[in-house]
Amino acid sequence: MKQLELAIRQMIAISDEEMTGLLKDCYHKTFKKKALLSVPDRVANEIFFIKRGIIRVMITDVNGVEHTTHFALENQFIADYSSFLQKTPAQYSLQALEETETIVLPRPVIEWGYQNLKEGDKLGRLIAEYYFIYLDTRIINLYSQTARMRYGHITQIFPNIHNRAPQHMIASYIGITPVHLSRLKKAVSATI
Fold it and tell me: What are the backbone dihedrals phi and psi of residue 17, each rounded to the nearest 5 degrees, phi first?
């Protein structure tokens, strides 16, 4: 739990007693490669803190095609936040792309934090702000940048992603086909 404690202490001032209270009902859970942490049509009742591994967030369209919308790496919180906050059925799937070790924060832990931590609301706000800014930037980039520009930024956003996620998922995240990604990688390599 030390990684989670450190992440929380970087965001808010929290006493040892508050930290103990917050973490007492959290637990470790390891997901095997390709395991689903969250699936559509079920209410998300936990938030995951990634200790080790990578998680892909995806949505499946009406034709059954999967679209990668996000990757989450070590020391990040991840959930289907809309489902969690609204207590509505999830729209996204969360999938471990490699064996992924997490700390699970069940809904009662989050609710306890809001009610009992002096800066519980601030912690929730900071996590929400981080995620909002990430998503807003992602939308702006999808519509204002070329595929080559988005390709150039992906390793800044997700270090070592090319060794951790299959190319078709990276292509999906960028918004191009795997064939286009292959051509783009060759073109970029030729200019280096």
Answer: -65, -45
Domain that holds residue 173: 147-192
Structure-block tokens of residue 37: 């942490």
Q: Are 34 and 129 in contact (CB under 8 A)?
A: no
Sequence-ordered list of residues with C-beta below 8 angstroms from that of 24, at least 6 positions apart, any chain: none
Same domain, 109 and 190: no
**Three-state SS at 116:** helix
* Number of domains observed in the structure of the chain: 2
Per-residue pLDDT tens for 117-156? 999 999 999 999 999 999 999 999 999 999 999 998 898 8
Q: Is the whole-model pTM more than 0.90?
A: yes
Q: Are residues 35 and 97 in the same domain?
A: yes
Tokens of 170: 């990276």
170 shares its domain with 106:
no
- pLDDT tens for each residue of 151-175: 988 988 998 999 999 999 999 999 9
